[in-house]
User: What shape does this take?
Amino acid sequence: MAQIINGQEAADLVEGGGTGLLTITDHSVIVGSGTDPVTPITVGTTGQVLLGATSADPVFTTVSDVDTLMIGAGINGAAPPEAASILTSTYSVEVRNFDDATDEDLYFTWQVPFDFTGSTVTFRVITWITNATGPSNEGVAFFLQGASIADGELISSALGTAVKSSYLDQTHVQYDRKATTWSGAVTVTGIAAGETVMFKLYRDESDADDDYAQDIGAEAFQIKYSRLLSS
Assistant: This one.
């Protein structure tokens, strides 16, 4: 017969090697809590992984990944930026200069990974100060919108709402690198794993965040998205 201590089986007590709990949530993972009862972690969902945290309990989270699309892969839009050029200061990068007085745009295709999950992405743009007059407490604003194209669908699918990624109040000199902040969620029309997304990237010189009165060189833009891991 199990020994009962204070109304609880001894085997259930932590000091006796037990969990300290009478029940544990089905499918949960438990973590140690010193001499206190173990802590069940909230059950994860399909494709999530357990992510550690310094001095804290781990949590299940959806995995994010980042893809980089180099500016040289861009296809000219209605008002394209300058042709590709090489910016050199000891080392070199390829950029396309986006004008400070005219909205200029490029199109990019992105092959959606087969383990993509969700309906949105976020983005940022990697820029370089190409003009001798760098920004002085000034900023730049880029926008991104996109549509996903499946087999049998037209390349002319309607793009979703454009979302901004910018930097503000920056002071830099020529040849400095500066990335815009990660954007909010960009809803890509009809996005699904395994399809092709058509993105439109453009600088909006009339946006309130864009007050740098010089061209800005863009080297690449990055897309962050969620992945559904499987065994």
Notes: The chain has no helices and 18 strands. Residues 125 and 221 are 4 Å apart (CA to CA).
